[in-house]
Amino acid sequence: MRFQAIPVLAAVLALPHAVFGEVKCYGTGSAPWGDYEGRSAAAHGIDDWCNDIAPSTFSGGQQVKQCLEVDYIIPNVMLRMKNGKSGDAVLDVDTCKKLLKDIVDTCDGGGADDDSDGWRPRADPGVGCD
Description:
Elements: H1 2-20, E1 24-25, H2 36-53, E2 56-58, E3 63-69, E4 76-82, E5 89-91, H3 93-106, E6 111-112, E7 122-126
Antiparallel strand pairs: 1-6, 2-5, 3-4, 4-7, 6-7
């Protein structure tokens, strides 16, 4: 019985990666978030943006992006959320915030998560936006 529990435990521990994916940080050349206050300013911008765009239904491949002015060391944050699935998906506010804030918390200079279950968030600090 003990050996049957190990695969179940492994599957449970792997669930967060399967659902939320893995953040990949941008390499050299990207602007840094700066200190704690810079990351906090980005997180507050993410809260506002996610409250504006979610909950909502995204068609397959649909994306929403916006350049936010945060007026700190980093003057702007480019945010993107994309439905990576072929069919419709509903983005809820908490998922939006978690996926984008994971990038801010994990990466010094922005990044993306193209492994999450359907959602493809990106957050990029900088002077300008695309």
